[in-house]
Structures are given as structure tokens and as C-alpha cells.
Amino acid sequence: MTKTRRRFKQTIPLRERLSAWAEDMRERAAILPEGPEREDLLKRAGQADVAAHIDQWAESPGLRPPT
Questions:
Q1: What are 29-47's pLDDT values in tens digits?
Q2: What CA–CA distance (Å, rounded) separates 18 from 55?
Q3: If you ran DSSP here, which 8-state letter would residue 64 be given?
């Protein structure tokens, strides 16, 4: 018995999905008091921003090193 993978085509580019996710993390962090949970959400938002920037760089036609 072989299992087949369920596949689907993403309609929204990765960069946009990462940016939206980062914004959601920032909104969730804004309503939390200072503390480790809030810092974790802000850290994750920053990581998503970096990932979006790397995706943009990888998709660029010149592929220059990041600045």
C-alpha cells in the first residue's frame, strides 16, 4: 500500500505569507505584558522578516550578497 502526498499550489507568495505572519505576531505581542512570552513573539516576528528578506534576495535577478 502506497501513500500519496496531498499537494496544493500556494496562491500567496512566501514573502507575503511571512510578512503577514510577522505582523500577526507583533499584534499578538502588543497586547501582552512585558515578559518572556512577548519577547518570544517579537523574536519570531523578526525571524520571519529575515526569512522574507532572504526569499526576496534569492528571487532577485542579480543574486547579490545580502547587505
A1: 999 999 999 999 999 999 9
A2: 10
A3: P
Its pTM surpasses 0.70: yes
Q: In one letter, which amino acid is 56?
A: Q
What's the structural domain count of the chain? 1
Q: Check: CB of residue 17 under 8 Å from CB of residue 44.
A: no
- Looking at residue 17, what is its pLDDT? 93
- For residues 27 and 50, what is the distance between their CA atoms, to the nearest angstrom? 18
Task: Classify residue 4: in a domain, yes or no.
Answer: no
Beta-strand ranges (E) seen in 4-64 are none
What is the domain range of residue 21? 14-59
Residue 9: inside a domain: no
Give the Cα separation of 47 and 43 in Å (integer): 6
Contacts 24+ apart (CB under 8 A), 29-33: none
